[in-house]
């Protein structure tokens, strides 16, 4: 099991985001709860519900805005809920979509229950769905280079981040309301951030 | 009774032209037989990108992503798929107040008495009513063009979903 905390990956991701190039979509849960407390330099749309919808939401943005790179953050439980979305992405072949899956094998937001006890190899599934690149990332040290490879994959890319699960992790609560999130995303996008 | 004349595709073409005129550039779809007729016409359009999906919930989420960037999308699905979408409608479309126009084949309505479609036909409009999703049956013939334009204006102004329900005759 990984000892790398989610926040370490998020720190590395935020440092790698490029204003004017990247858009960020976060699925419900810890990522969406951490991001408002970080200095995210690009438009960010964070979900507080709609489990499993971060990747298709990001796909829509990627298809509509071919001039921007869209990064979707999703949990392994959320991806399991909507695994078919990898086939949809593979069929659409957006060259500007990077999917990042945090794999901690738990439903963290709902109390830390175990996922179904089966080791789904998301990278293998993604490659079978015609993702241009899919790789597992063992720790935050390797994130930056893996992200750079994903960004130049020439097609949809997926990174699976091995993430520690700590039921005592002090994840901040949701701090933005949906209308605020929608408006701030639109404003940042219009401003060319 | 003779079925709809699917060889003309006049209804489907009318809908596609109305979507183009409304500024739609991306349509997400999971077809049934009727939506399949429409999808064939959509794929002939040089102004529309058709995105094939694995589930109807995805179709709605993708359309929301398109709309959040300021572009316009449509979702083309069967009512059975729409009935799967209560959570995504509530927790994405309505929670974040994202305009979303749904083009829905209305299987099992009084003009489609196929026994296995009848139960979902019976529950379609009451379910949309319960979800708080504004909806209308498609107007016949040319009148649907203005109705589609009105659906987009309404969805944008109210920042809400709008479902247009189509019979076979409307799509053929």
Overview features:
heterodimer; A: 193 residues; alpha/beta; Rossmann fold; six-stranded parallel sheet; two-stranded antiparallel ribbon; B: 172 residues; 6 strands; 49% helix; globular
What can you see in these coordinates?
The complex is a heterodimer of chains A (193) and B (172). In chain A, 36% of the residues lie in helices and 19% in strands. Chain A is an alpha/beta fold and 193 residues long. Chain A has one domain (6-190): Rossmann fold, CATH 3.40.50. Chain A has a 6-stranded parallel β-sheet, with helices on both faces. Chain A is globular. In chain B, 49% of the residues lie in helices and 20% in strands. Chain B has a 6-stranded parallel β-sheet with strand order 2-1-3-4-6-5, with helices on both faces. In chain B, strand 1, helix 2 and strand 2 form a beta-alpha-beta unit. The interface between A and B is medium-sized, with 34 and 32 residues.
């Amino acid at each position: 099991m990984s000892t790398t905390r989610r926040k370490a990956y998020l720190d590395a991701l935020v440092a790698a985001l490029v204003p004017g190039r990247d858009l960020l979509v976060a699925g419900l849960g810890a990522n969406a709860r951490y991001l408002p407390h970080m200095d995210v330099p690009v438009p960010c749309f964070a979900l507080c519900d709609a489990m499993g919808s971060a990747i298709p939401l990001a796909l829509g943005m990627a298809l509509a805005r071919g001039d921007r790179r869209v990064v979707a953050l999703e949990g392994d439980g959320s991806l399991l809920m909507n695994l078919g979305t990898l086939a949809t992405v593979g069929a659409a072949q957006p060259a500007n979509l990077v999917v990042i899956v945090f794999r901690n094998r738990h439903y963290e937001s709902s109390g830390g229950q175990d996922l179904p006890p089966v080791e789904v190899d998301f990278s293998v599934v993604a490659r079978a769905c015609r993702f241009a690149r899919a790789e597992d990332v063992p720790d935050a040290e390797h994130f930056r280079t893996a992200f750079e490879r994903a960004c130049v994959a020439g097609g949809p890319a997926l990174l699976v981040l091995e993430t520690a699960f700590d039921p005592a992790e002090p994840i901040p609560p949701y701090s933005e309301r949906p209308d605020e999130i929608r408006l701030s995303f639109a404003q940042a996008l219009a401003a060319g951030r | 009774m003779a079925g709809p004349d699917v060889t003309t595709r006049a209804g489907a073409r009318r809908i596609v032209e109305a979507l183009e005129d409304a500024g739609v550039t991306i349509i997400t779809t999971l077809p049934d037989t009727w939506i399949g007729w429409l999808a064939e016409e959509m794929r002939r359009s040089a102004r529309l990108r058709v995105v094939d999906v694995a589930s109807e919930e995805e179709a709605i989420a993708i359309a929301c992503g398109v709309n959040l960037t300021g572009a316009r999308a449509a979702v083309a699905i069967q009512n059975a798929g729409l009935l799967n979408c209560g959570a995504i409608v509530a927790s994405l479309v309505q929670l974040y107040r994202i305009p979303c126009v749904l083009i829905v084949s209305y299987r099992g309505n009084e003009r489609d008495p196929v026994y296995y479609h009848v139960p979902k036909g019976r529950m379609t409009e009451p379910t949309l009513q319960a979800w708080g999703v504004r909806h209308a049956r498609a107007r016949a013939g040319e009148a649907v063009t203005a109705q589609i334009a009105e659906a987009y204006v309404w969805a944008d102004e109210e920042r809400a979903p709008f479902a247009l329900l189509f019979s076979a005759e409307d799509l053929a």
